[in-house]
Amino acid sequence: MRIRMGCCAVGLLSSLTVKAAVTLDANYDHASLKSYTVTGAAATPTVNLVGRDNYFGSSQWRWLNFKTSGVQNVKPTFSISENFAGGASELDTQWMVYSYDNVNWNFFDNNARSGGLFRFSNNTNFTSPNVYVAYAPAYSYGMSVAHTQGVLATPWAHPTPSGNASGVIGQSAGGTDDLGRAVTPKNIYAYKITGNLPSYPSHPKKKIVISTGLHANEVLGTYTYQGLVDFLVSNDPRAVVLRDSAEFYCYPTLNPDGRFAGNNRATVQDPNVDPNGQWNASLWGNDKEVMVNGTSMIADTHPTASTSPVDVFIDFHSTIPASPGDDFAYLEYEQGDNLAPFWLNLKQLQPNVLDTDSTGTSWTSANFAEAFLGARVDVTFETQFGKHRALSYYRDLGRNFGLAFEKAFEPTKGDTNFDGTINFTDLLKLAQNYNIATGMTWEQGDFDFDGDVDFTDLLALAQKFGTTALLDPTSLEGATSTFASDYALARGMVPEPTSLSLFLIFALPRRARADRERRAHFTSMSASE
Q1: CA distances from 337 to 277, 370, 375, 451 (A)
Q2: How far apart are CA 310 and CA 326, in angstroms?
Q3: What b/e string do you get for 140-168 counting C-beta neighbours within 10 Å, with b at 16 or more?
Q4: How far apart, in whole angstroms, are the C-alpha atoms of residue 160 and residue 167?
Q5: How many other CB atoms sit within 10 Å of the CB of residue 305?
Q6: Which of 146, 247, 372, 402 has the fewest Cβ atoms within 10 Å of its own Cβ atom?
Q7: 259 phi, psi to nearest 5 deg
Q8: What beta strand segments (E) does 17-159 contain?
Q9: Per-residue confidence (pLDDT) for residue 198, from 0 to 100
């Protein structure tokens, strides 16, 4: 169904021309508009918009997304009631956006309230006959599907245990939206991202659950989620380390029907209820999307929950301007979630990000994660509309989440196989790659992410050599007490790569044998006394 309403008849040739030329379409994935009229001159028409008020009611609109046709060399002014969900004053910092390709977005030059209306326009004419207009850069359900397929095509992502080979964990309910359009059931997706190294029983990988798209219009949170996932599957050496230190369970389509239908907030099945209060089995009856995602999260993470519960859960959202004034997280202060190392790392990387105390009084996704996934830290992260930021900001913000996790979960320098022990296995791996100048990874002995394996990496390993709960005093690791100092003294005398392996193989056992002989000597002296 196309939303096409004729302009007001004002008896002018210019108005009749506009009627034939300027049309709006909101019948596509993630589009949203109730109705419109067009008035005024052909070159500078006014497009009068009526937004959808699903969930909010009382003619309160929020999400707008439509395609305008017939506007090449035209400079329209768009106008809509200031009866905005959240309050008219929230529009004072809102800049609407437009795009010629539905991918790259620009802010309108003029955005202001007056006379009970909110108007937005540009200072110059559009240069294309077709222009997409939206409340914020759109992120359709189809974009989530395409991104999921791209992620699953990488070596690092796989369907979760609850999903099929395509990553589908179930389907949404489908239904009829507030405009009378049929919304067919949509696939709901999940995937797991991790590296190839195993998770050792004595040193298990961290377990992290991330999700987005619960509120249909909160697109900035989904862009941030995408930035994190793109980092996780990248070739960045820190992403390589993070994948081998942790496993990420990812749920990108919490509310596919609502996103597809262009809803303001809720699902199509239950349009008057906030789905972020339905995360309990007793409440799932009218929110199939929540049920599918929730049961999948339990099935995907529960098999080892008793010994390895979820370490961190993050649900990425967006919000209209709200306290504390910038992008922020709801965290449970009384449980110390605001002091979690990854969160402190993020605030160092992203100083504008703030946090506020979560009351935890309803069945939100975060409360579900704590109760049913055993999440040690549960976060609802809010990116704020009205900040006039380029999409690159949100992708970089997501990447900084990844860097914050890497810094928090990075193994001890020297641990090449992530087993929690720095021993001869790690030393030999470093020796095999010593003095290789490019292309090295942590697993090969590059502990400072500069691409090579050199004395700096060797010294880092030496300083932590043998740092595990040990130990048989006759083992090689018994040489720990003098190993680091010996290498520090050897600075400038490190053998070339061709001889380093032989040096390590022959010199270190001699060092260990000397230590055993010394301990045996002191033991015999103690016995004689």
Answers
A1: 21, 12, 11, 34
A2: 28
A3: bbebbbebbeebbeeebbbbbebbeeebb
A4: 7
A5: 14
A6: 146
A7: -65, -45
A8: 23-25, 35-39, 46-50, 65-69, 77-81, 97-99, 106-107, 110-114, 117-121, 130-134, 157-158
A9: 85
Over 90: is that where the pLDDT of 120 sits? yes
Are 80 and 135 spatial neighbours (Cβ–Cβ below 8 Å)?
Answer: no
516: its two tokens: 């055993």
Spatial strand order of the sheet with 97-99 comes to: 23-25, 65-69, 130-134, 97-99, 106-107
Sort strands 206-212 and 246-251 into parallel, antiparallel or unpaired: parallel
E strand residue ranges, 40-186: 46-50, 65-69, 77-81, 97-99, 106-107, 110-114, 117-121, 130-134, 157-158, 168-171, 175-176, 182-183
Alpha carbons 138 and 127: distance in angstroms, whole number: 21
Asked whether 152 and 140 are in contact (CB, 8 A), the reply is no
Q: 40: burial class by Cβ within 10 Å (0-12, 13-18, 19+)?
A: buried
Residue with tokens 């595990």: 468
Mean pLDDT (whole number) for 399-415: 95
Residues 201 and 211: beta-carbon distance below 8 Å = no
125-170 pLDDT per residue, tens:
999 999 999 999 999 999 999 999 999 999 999 999 999 999 999 9
Q: Single out the residue of 401, 476, 411 nearest to residue 441, CA to CA.
A: 411
pLDDT at 306: 61
How many CA atoms are closer than 13 Å to the CA of 175, on its beta-carbon side? 21
Distance between CA atoms of residues 508 and 501, nearest Å: 11
209-213, 351-355, 393-397, 424-428: least confident range = 424-428
- Whether 176 has a pLDDT exceeding 60, the answer reads yes
Q: Which residues, in sequence order, are CB contacts of 528 under 8 Å at separation 6+?
A: none
Pick the closest to residue 39 from 19, 69, 59 (CA basis).
19
Which residue from 81, 85, 137 is spatially nearest to 107, judged by alpha carbons?
137
Q: How far apart are CA 191 and CA 163, in angstroms?
A: 8
| DSSP H or E stretch at residue 430 | helix 424-433
Model pLDDT for residues 304-322, shown as the tens digit of each residue: 656 678 999 999 999 999 9
Which pLDDT belongs to residue 303?
A: 66
The amino acid at residue 10 is: V
pTM recorded for the entire structure: 0.85
Residue in 76, 391, 58 with CA at minimum distance from that of residue 222: 391
Report whether 123 contacts 110 (CB < 8 A).
yes
